[in-house]
Amino acid sequence: MRKMTVAEAIREALRLEMKRDERVFIMGEDVGKFGGCFGVTQGLYEEFGPERVKDTPISETAIIGSAVGAAATGMRPVPEIMFCDFLTVPMDQLVNQAAKMRYMFGGKAKIPMTVRVPVGAGMSAAAQHSQCLEAWFIHVPGLKVVMPSTPADHAGLLISSIRDDNPVMFFEHKMLYGVEGEVPDEIEPIPLGKADIKREGEDVTVIATSMMVYKSLEAAKELEKDGISIEVVDPRTLFPLDKETIFESVKKTNRVVIVHEAVKRGGVGAEIAAQIADEMFDYLDAPIKRVAALNVPIPFSPPLEKYVVPDVKDIINAVKSIAR
Amino acid sequence: MRKMTVAEAIREALRLEMKRDERVFIMGEDVGKFGGCFGVTQGLYEEFGPERVKDTPISETAIIGSAVGAAATGMRPVPEIMFCDFLTVPMDQLVNQAAKMRYMFGGKAKIPMTVRVPVGAGMSAAAQHSQCLEAWFIHVPGLKVVMPSTPADHAGLLISSIRDDNPVMFFEHKMLYGVEGEVPDEIEPIPLGKADIKREGEDVTVIATSMMVYKSLEAAKELEKDGISIEVVDPRTLFPLDKETIFESVKKTNRVVIVHEAVKRGGVGAEIAAQIADEMFDYLDAPIKRVAALNVPIPFSPPLEKYVVPDVKDIINAVKSIAR
Amino acid sequence: MKLKKEELLHFYRKMVEIRKFETKVVELFADGMIPGFVHSYIGEEAVAVGACSNLNDDDYITSTHRGHGHLIAKGGHMDKMMAELFGKETGYCKGKGGSMHIADVDLGILGANGIVGGGFPIAAGAGLSAKMRGTNQVAVCFFGDGASNQTTFHEGINLASIWDLPVVFVCENNMYGISLSQKEHQHIKDISDRATAYGIPGVTVDGNDVIAVYEAVKEAVKRARQGEGPTLIECKTYRHRGHFEGDPTVYRSEEEVEQWKKKDPIKRFRKKLLELGTVTEDELNSIDEEVDKMVEEAVEYAKKGKFPEPEKAVEDVYTDIVEEVRE
Amino acid sequence: MKLKKEELLHFYRKMVEIRKFETKVVELFADGMIPGFVHSYIGEEAVAVGACSNLNDDDYITSTHRGHGHLIAKGGHMDKMMAELFGKETGYCKGKGGSMHIADVDLGILGANGIVGGGFPIAAGAGLSAKMRGTNQVAVCFFGDGASNQTTFHEGINLASIWDLPVVFVCENNMYGISLSQKEHQHIKDISDRATAYGIPGVTVDGNDVIAVYEAVKEAVKRARQGEGPTLIECKTYRHRGHFEGDPTVYRSEEEVEQWKKKDPIKRFRKKLLELGTVTEDELNSIDEEVDKMVEEAVEYAKKGKFPEPEKAVEDVYTDIVEEVRE
Ligand SMILES: Cc1ncc(C[n+]2csc(CCOP(=O)(O)OP(=O)(O)O)c2C)c(N)n1
Ligand SMILES: Cc1ncc(C[n+]2csc(CCOP(=O)(O)OP(=O)(O)O)c2C)c(N)n1
Ligand SMILES: [Mg+2]
Ligand SMILES: [Mg+2]
């Protein structure tokens, strides 16, 4: 084991896969000599050269669309979209081309591409640079959706995503890039579709994604003082979703809080809640609570931004509202 | 009262608003002399002229973006996007501009525009011409989302949408255009955020949207034969959502089935289910069921398409699975 | 340029294949045998054939909603195409795609596309891939005049231009995007002028002259294979039929249609061949007959095929996940 | 063209306002007083001022992420701008927008924009609205060289071109889109060449010469107001600082920066004014001092303002719905 930040873990996974498989390449805005807007790809341009770490024009549609074309013809591109908010621009290539091509062609194409996308608020980047839009993509059959929290999970899941023969949306939280954690000396792929229990507990199941895993773990410590033990389940991939692990936890605690940073209405929490409300109904002893951002665009000013995005206290309150 | 098809009702609402308010205008691909891909705007070009019924290039981004600019500067555009699937193209202008402009500007702009969008399967138009993507838009604060079923609702809600000072997504099912129903002689606006109980019942609440309202009403007839009485609630607007009406129905029946044509995962049904599973938990006597399309792109071939999209039988089965 | 007789006959045969295929499709559509939308390529055959005759099996094309012609010209199999149009499991896409999504990736056909302009960046990506893999494949991107106003036109061609990608952008300017005439949807006459915006060569040719198209694309393909980057080629042509089957075509005049029918690419080419004396009328007639038979066989094949089992709908979404898509 | 002294002094004052505002912003950002991202306009002042000096209060502009200069040039109030940068409720957007979203709709400023290229169709729409309402307003759309490769560039300009909308597209070609040089991101030298693609006039001017910009835009505004449609104007310029504050600018050389600093638009203009003899050094100095004071006052105003109450976050999403956005 060694310590790495999330950014380092991602970079290491990219390096390993690029060394292992020459079809893998990176493309995006300022990913080359600049090293990426958040420094994630730093050094890769020097190591692999401009052909495999491609700086593109400010043309998100061309980035995703050309990745689709390259993936359909034998390459394994790893395009980056600089901010999640800019996914609005190449949506057609993601949704109508990448996701559907295999199906429309009757299974006669595969589109192995992994789209890396920083999400999230926390740096006063305001409404067009702070969104979490992962929910849109679970609604698009043909895509897989990954949203890790720890450095080790980022590394292991990125490797699996790159090796996956389907288009994968890989969401990274920009405020996690600098967060450290243990990473195995030999990074192994972590299969898509396996949740991870980040903390065992008895009283309430807290299903949290990305940054909210950390906030939930903090909440867990506070709640412990009040004698409430929460189990923190990190789905890690939103599709495929590891219902088994989630459901097992619900069977144990009979109480659920779902936490994500995206706005609440129509967020991924709704889908998870709906699945539980259907299939786990008999095990539930309390309302299913969701903790998520207010349904507003992310505001700029720090006190507003802080207010809009869920924090530890919101999680604690939600848990307490249903704890035995 | 008079009989009108959905297409006629929409056209009549457009006519009335264009006559009432000269700031209202229509723009889109082939909406002018061609009368619209589905014939909805037929005759309006002749009546109001090319300045107010504007044929645009095949440029969805320009259509929506210029509507935003026009709306911000005193007009009330009613752009049409020919197929819901093509909303992928102008997403940025919808999500990052139209929806957020007022907020980002601290309340100092208003964007009164209504985007008309045909959705849905049923004509073997395949994966890129059959989607229902309304769920994406309830996840975007700043937008309102309307999805009517009957001709009268289309007319009344379209009028309210056009008069609304916020950007409204107005989803019409293309297979409903030819469906007839009663429309008041004087068409009055129907307020956004008011659900309508399309059929009263005692045993199970069926919340259905758009085309699925019709299929639910058919199911109701069948179910009646088996002694099961369902209440069919049509939310009509997905945001604002009329929780009150929905919750009242749940209080009565204690059982819920949600039906929509969009694919299930991440659909609007998830949000509605999640709200019920939170706020109505104590009234629920059975799992919340969702009936929706399979999580696949819409296939071309009729037997496949039919299989993927929910039908009356699926609704009946879901109701029976939880009925007392 | 001196073309060999077999090349000329190939042009003729392929154009006739498209024409007869499409004529049959129109008929079958009217008879209710083909569901969904059908956009006929009749009148534009010289473009697909002139362009694709420069390509090898492993070269790529991206096609459009009006794709049948491109597919046939690139070597696609009529029987599987027809079966797909019928929605049969024996079709190219097992009935999942239909007219707007027929593909044959093994033949480099990266699909018809229901999204206007969808192919630009995909073609650029195929070109990028060819370049990175060090092959000398090229990609031809077909698109309409209407599509030249889409977002993707701009970004796709710009990308190809800066990376000198082996892509040929072939515009089928049939003067209309559905009901909107070119005059109404753009403020230029020659779409090839847009090449200036990317610092690449742009040429306009008579799109009803298969040899003119062939030669322009030949030059562009050569440039592409030599690493000199993309070319934009505009082919002026016309669709004889409505935008889709069922279009009442209120937006254009009978005279205009008649004018263009006089410039029918197949009739013209047939006449030219006979005038040149390279071929005899009999040779051409026997091609016609062979093609008639092909089309009949394709229809037979399509009719014989079964509709897919409904349960197959859950397959082919992912390479690995199948039953779980029900949840 | 003969310019009056007051016009010349207006150019000078506005450029100095921008320079001093931006210089202060850079300082305050470094001191941690301004959160978020800041993109400095230093070095590009001649473009905003030259362009906006042609506009009336009710004309429109769409701006970019690098918007402070445009806003000041269009008459935006420094104090409310500064307060917004601080995130104060006294700011233009009550702290909801920040640097990338400052707007003053009453002054026709349709907002800075965090989406590269976001303004093209919006400007077209403002022009359309002016035309439909029968005013003689125009809209100026500012954008960078990098933005000229975005989807929106193509669709926005095409729309304006076919409907002869009163829009002037002003490109600030500062030779880089973040780290990528123009040479790397497009295959052309002059972005004004792209005007060909839309059949509209395109001109390139020295973007560090405020009079050159002024005159080119004057001509374009005149055309626009006369109903003759849009123009594309490219202003070659340079940003003195990094893309955003904090950018290590590894992608360009010190020499290049120094070269351009020699062409500083304000220094140049000041020198020219003095050479022309129309103004005295004292007059210019007193403008400098007045602006210093303005900036100080703006900072005071910003500092004095309060941060918004957190609960205000739910306001301004809709015109009518407020508390319900919590649900
Ligand atoms: C993004 C998108 N917008 C609109 C449509 C609807 N549509 C299908 S074909 C077509 C016209 C295309 O015109 P053109 O590119 O000239 O091709 P042609 O049909 O003339 O061959 C339109 C508007 C679409 N399929 N995709
Ligand atoms: C759609 C989109 N893509 C990428 C970005 C990130 N970004 C912000 S500014 C910028 C560079 C813009 O370059 P240019 O248009 O030349 O303007 P300049 O910064 O040079 O003034 C980029 C890539 C963005 N904000 N929006
Ligand atoms: Mg056309
Ligand atoms: Mg620039």
Helix content of chain C: 40-55%
Count of extended strands of chain C: 7
CATH superfamily of chain C: Thiamin diphosphate (ThDP)-binding fold, Pyr/PP domains
Low-confidence stretches of chain A: none
CATH structural architecture of chain C = 3-Layer(aba) Sandwich
Question: Which ranges of chain C are low-confidence, i.e. pLDDT below 50, for 5 or more consecutive residues?
Answer: none
- Shape category of chain C: globular
Number of helices of chain C: 11
Instruction: Report how far apart the termini of chain A are.
Output: 39 Å
Indicate the radius of gyration of chain A in whole angstroms: 19 Å
Work out the strand percent of chain C.
Answer: 5-15%
Look at the structure and name the CATH superfamily of the largest domain in chain A. Thiamin diphosphate (ThDP)-binding fold, Pyr/PP domains
The amount of helix of chain A comes to 25-40%
Largest sheet: spatial strand order of chain A = 9-11-10-13-14
Mean pLDDT of chain A: 98
Distance between the termini of chain C: 61 Å
Strand and helix order of chain A = EHEHEHEHHEHEHEEEEHEEHEHEHH
Average pLDDT of chain C works out at: 97
Largest sheet of chain C: 5 strands, parallel
For this structure, the CATH topology of the largest domain in chain A is Rossmann fold
**Number of DSSP helical runs of chain A:** 12
Keywords:
heterotetramer, A: 324 residues, alpha/beta, Rossmann fold, 5-stranded mixed β-sheet, 20% strand, C: 327 residues, 5-stranded parallel β-sheet, two-stranded antiparallel sheet, 43% helix, binds thiamine diphosphate, binds magnesium ion
Detailed description of the structure:
The complex is a heterotetramer, with two copies of chain A (324 residues) and two copies of chain C (327 residues). Chain A contains twelve helices and 14 strands. With 324 residues, chain A is an alpha/beta fold. Chain C has eleven helices and seven strands. Chains A and B meet through α4, α6 and α10 of A and α4, α6 and α10 of B. Bound molecules: thiamine diphosphate (TPP) (2 copies) and magnesium ion (2 copies). One thiamine diphosphate (TPP) sits between chains D (65-66, 114-116, 144-147, 172, 174, 176-178, 243) and A (29, 58, 60, 82, 86, 89).
